[in-house]
Amino acid sequence: MPTLKELGYPELVATTWAAISGPAHLPANIVGKLNREVVKALSSDNARKRLEQEAVVTELLSPAQFTAFVQSEIDKWGPVARQVAKPE
């Protein structure tokens, strides 16, 4: 398997991320409430300390920020995935 640099993406940096998401078309009021509760839970001293111990960096995004982030990941990785998936 070629490296990202060999594929023509010398500046591309890969990271791992995780998120909590729901089904498509979830009502905005439910999305907002879930987001507020997750942010609240992850902002607690206990959660922050535990995540830091595991070397986890948290970014507490709004639903709109997360949607934009996912789109940026699609934009970034889509060309790579298409190139790698090409039959030889």
Report what the structure shows.
This protein is mainly α. It has a domain at 28-85. It has three helices and no strands. The protein has helices spanning 28-42, 45-53, 63-85. The longest helix has 23 residues, at 63-85. The chain is flat and about 50 Å long. The model has no long low-confidence stretch (mean pLDDT 90).
Rg, nearest Å: 17 Å
Tell me, rounded to a whole number, the average pLDDT.
90
List SSEs in N-to-C order: HHH
Which class best fits the helix and strand makeup?
Answer: mainly alpha
Number of helices: 3
* Proportion of helical residues: 40-55%
Q: What percentage of the residues does DSSP assign to strands (E)?
A: under 5%
The rounded distance between the terminal residues' Cα atoms is 12 Å
Put the structure in a nutshell.
The chain has 88 residues and is mainly α.
Label this structure with key terms.
88 residues; mainly alpha; 53% helix; flat
Helix/strand layout:
Blueprint: H1 28-42, H2 45-53, H3 63-85
